[in-house]
Amino acid sequence: EYAGTKKMRFKPVIISHHMLMGLKEGQEKMSKSDPDSAIFMEDAAEDVKRKVKKAYCPPQIVEKNPIVDYCKHIIFGHHGSMTITINGEAVVYNTYEELEVDYLSGKIWPGDLKPAVADAIN
After folding, report:
1. Is the pTM value of this prediction over 0.90?
2. Which of the residues 16, 84, 105, 122 could staple to 116 if both were Cys, CB 3.0 to 4.6 A apart?
3. In angstroms, rounded to a whole number, what is the distance separating the alpha carbons of residues 114 and 99?
4. Residue 91: beta bridge partners?
5. Residue 95 CB-half CA count within 13 A
6. Do 27 and 66 meet the contact criterion of CB atoms below 8 Å apart?
7. In this structure, are residues 98 and 111 in contact, taking their beta carbons and an 8 Å threshold?
8. SS3 per residue for the chain
9. What is the percent of the chain with per-residue pLDDT over 90, rounded to a whole number?
């Protein structure tokens, strides 16, 4: 394009993001061919809850844990905080690091984390 008499040049912009893990054990990334391995934008709230409930989420392990991965890259990235009900008490986490410490220690269990993740995504 021309602006006045000078030719304008535009440099390409590359946007990259973290590749979310698949929801099943051993899946390094989501798969469109397996609808239960990913949460899609068009999923109904009930589908999100079902998929998260069935998802691989080993207790006290954050590496290769897709539910913890969703917390780190989606929930904290969008909301900046997360509320998890633990033993009937609502606990607010203002950083992913706080959540990770409590998950690794066993204060948060998959049964606490999964409903909170489904609610936050919905």
Report:
1. no
2. 84
3. 13
4. 84
5. 3
6. yes
7. no
8. CEECCEECCCCCCCCCCCCCCCCCCCCCCCCCCCHHHCCCCCCCHHHHHHHHHHCCCCCCCCCCCHHHHHHHHHHHHHHCCEEEEECCEEEEECCHHHHHHHHHHCCCCHHHHHHHHHHHHC
9. 65
